[in-house]
Specification:
By secondary structure, this protein is α+β, with helices and mostly antiparallel strands. The chain has two domains: 3-161, GAF domain (Beta-Lactamase), CATH 3.30.450.40; 239-393, Histidine kinase-like ATPase, C-terminal domain (Heat Shock Protein 90), CATH 3.30.565. Helix content is 45%, strand content 20%. It is built from ten helices and 13 strands. It has helices at 3-16, 25-38, 73-77, 98-101, 138-197, 206-234, 246-256, 258-264, 280-300, 356-366; strands spanning 42-48, 52-59, 65-67, 83-85, 109-116, 122-130, 243-245, 267-270, 275-277, 306-314, 317-324, 370-375, 381-388. The strands form three sheets. A six-stranded antiparallel β-sheet has the order 3-2-1-6-5-4. Helix 6 (206-234) crosses helix 9 (280-300). The longest helix has 60 residues, at 138-197. Its EC number is 2.7.13.3.
């Protein structure tokens, strides 16, 4: 097996954090079920890295660790598919194996189904065996495959749960750090705007008065958004539900971003957007992040920013897209840029800490949706968001 495959396997195993720990109750129940379904005394979940086989759950024996070269399951992992051997003494792959010869055990019947991650990396097996020769029925073979899939599902669920917990903790810590820095300058800004709006002679300057009113409105929206986002981070993602007119929210966002749009000479076009169900403040924050990023990174590419916002009905919901003519995001970075504090091209001199897309993903996921990046027909990046209709979950 190639070193590249071993590296991918080791990285996947490390993400699952299952080796060297007490057996997960869910995994233990699955091996017990495998033994019962296959009518054998012993079943094991084996995780196989580049050096060892780790029995992370077992019934019929005490879970242990052995060298990879002694593992029966390692012999079949290079070509992962279900295996059933009535008598291992008669199979050239296993005849001299210490689990068969008596040096470690006296396995005769052996069957296994591979554990393959969603990315296609085999990391081990769910195997059953007996010390007498025997066969395995077709229904039992299929059941073993299904149980192996369930093992991977349990590992994935545990991995995602840990990542979400770490993300929540990280975001909550970050929220506490920035709340003071965000709120105090904004409060000072609101105060200065109020003083300016009450200044003598403002009635004779209608254009200035209108600009101040717009600024006060934007500051009020920012205050509400900051409060709601910080609360969102602290409570672990609770969101409000109600009708949200994305067309109206996009208009408000463009008002807030008008100075930046004008300063950069950006051409921003918003198509017809739907009314969806969700949290208005969070979805406005989503639009603001996506539009601000599109304008900012397009301008960083050294050309006049062009941004297009559109939406279309798809099966089960809506697909929203924000496209730009900037430098785009390389395919290899399209997952990393959604991580907290991640940046795009590190060589680009672009303001901002890189928390926007992490927040966007969190908001979208809290609404039961998905977010990703593809290439745009404008030449840059296309950030897409799928949001489900309420009746579709």
């Amino acid at each position: 097996m190639s070193s590249g495959q071993d590296l991918a396997r080791r990285e996947a195993i490390d993400e699952y954090e299952v080796v060297g720990r007490r057996p997960e109750p869910e995994l233990q129940r699955l091996v017990e079920l495998a033994a019962a379904v296959c009518d054998v005394p012993t079943a094991v979940i084996n995780i196989i890295d580049d050096r060892h086989q780790h029995q992370v759950a077992a019934v019929g024996l005490a879970a242990s660790v052995c060298a990879r070269e002694d593992s029966m399951c390692a012999r079949v992992l290079a070509d992962p598919h279900p295996v059933a051997v009535p008598d291992a003494r008669l199979d050239e792959r296993f005849a001299t194996n210490p689990f068969v010869t008596g040096d470690i055990a006296n396995v005769r019947f052996y069957a296994s189904s591979p554990l393959v991650t969603p990315t296609g990396t085999p990391i081990g097996t769910l195997c059953v065996f007996d010390d007498v020769p025997r066969g395995l029925s077709a229904p039992a073979t299929r059941a073993l495959d299904v149980l192996a899939e369930q093992v991977v599902d349990v590992l994935e669920l545990r991995r995602v749960s840990r990542e979400l917990a770490r993300s929540n903790e990280q975001l909550t810590h970050f929220a506490g750090q920035v709340s003071h820095d965000l709120r105090n300058p904004l409060a000072a800004l609101v105060g200065f705007l109020e003083i300016a709006a009450d200044s003598p002679g403002m009635a004779e300057m209608p254009a200035t008065a209108e600009a101040l009113a717009r600024a006060e409105s934007s500051a009020a929206r920012m205050t509400a958004m900051i409060g709601d986002l910080l609360a969102f981070a602290r409570i672990g993602g609770g969101v409000g539900t109600g009708p949200v007119d994305l067309q109206r929210e996009a208009k408000a966002v463009l008002e807030d971003l008008s100075s930046e749009v004008d300063d950069r000479g950006a051409d921003v076009e918003v198509g017809t957007l739907p009314t969806v169900t969700g949290d208005a403040t969070l979805l406005r924050a989503l639009l603001q992040n996506l539009l601000a990023n599109a304008v900012k990174f397009s301008a960083a590419g050294g050309q006049r920013p062009v941004v297009r916002v559109a939406a279309e009905a798809v099966a089960g919901g809506w697909r929203l897209t924000v496209e730009d003519n900037g430098p785009g995001v390389p395919a290899a970075d399209r997952e990393r840029v959604f991580e907290l504090l991640a940046r795009g091209d590190e060589q680009q001199s672009v303001e901002g800490l890189g928390i926007g897309l992490s927040t966007c993903r969190r908001i979208v996921q809290s609404h039961g949706g998905r977010i990703g990046i593809t290439d745009s027909e404008l030449g840059g990046a296309c950030v897409w968001v799928s949001l489900p209709r309420p009746e579709d979950g």
